[in-house]
Specification:
With about 240 residues, the chain is an alpha/beta fold. The chain is about 35% helix and about 25% strand.
Length: about 240
């Protein structure tokens, strides 16, 4: 597996602390000074998310047909699941034996494609199959790459985590990883935990909203978002590294 951006293998402090149980906390997402999320802020949030693309022998990414602004265009395919990318690679090599999987961070990829001022390129995201199934259990008509969040009741405050005195709004690519947080939350807040509701939204919606929102209250919440890649994906990446 080709690794284009070694920075993606930097330690993920929020995820490490979460698994270690040091980020327990819950409460309302507190308002911040009103400001729209700029491109740098969006990229910074996405840099912690590893994704996979398939490159041909010329270094060009695998593409698929998609409709953009009522026109059919070829867009790069982005795999959230490394194992799925490896499986698809076998099919790609039937046409191009030199094809390979590249590991990238979503922030860099997003910056070089969607945010490219010279030639903006949309991306097609393929979700993790099991996580899509989990999302459909929460929202039967769900489409896209699922992000799981928790809140106190259907319309109550979002569950937050705390690090260095700052509250963050965690969104998980894995339903099981969110459950890890909820289990720890229940240990210290059993009564409040009984009212927790799991909801799901799509990565595509989040990216569009971060780029286009002009609502100061919503921008304040988006500023606190922290994305947590799937633990299984991180373990897959580690398993591919030479010992």
């Amino acid at each position: 597996m080709r690794q284009l951006f070694p920075s993606i293998l930097r330690p993920l402090p929020l995820l490490t602390a979460l698994v270690g149980g040091s980020l327990l906390g819950g409460g309302l997402v507190m308002p911040l000074p009103a400001q729209a999320l700029g491109e740098e802020a969006i990229v910074n949030k996405l840099e912690q998310v590893p994704v996979f693309i398939i490159l041909n022998s010329d270094g060009q990414p695998l593409t698929a047909a998609a409709e953009v602004n009522d026109q059919e265009v070829k867009v790069p395919v982005v795999f959230i699941d490394g194992e799925a990318a490896d499986e698809f690679l076998n099919r790609a090599r039937e046409e191009d034996p030199s094809a390979e999987v590249a590991l990238v961070d979503l922030g860099t990829l997003y910056q070089e494609t969607v945010l490219n001022s010279e030639a903006q390129v949309p991306l097609l995201y393929l979700p993790i199959g099991d996580e899509l199934d989990a999302a459909l259990q929460v929202q039967p008509n769900f489409q896209g790459v699922p992000l799981f969040i928790a809140r106190q009741g259907a319309d109550g405050p979002y569950l937050t985590i705390n690090q260095d005195g700052q509250a963050s709004l965690p969104m998980f690519f894995s339903r099981n990883d969110l459950q890890t947080l909820l289990n720890r939350y229940q240990e210290s807040n059993a009564e409040a935990a009984s009212d927790i509701v799991v909801q799901v939204l799509s990565l595509e919606w989040l990216l569009s909203t971060m780029a286009n929102s002009d609502d100061p209250a919503l921008d304040a919440q988006l500023e606190q978002v922290r994305l947590f890649p799937s633990t299984e994906v991180l373990n897959f990446i580690r398993s591919q590294q030479p010992e």
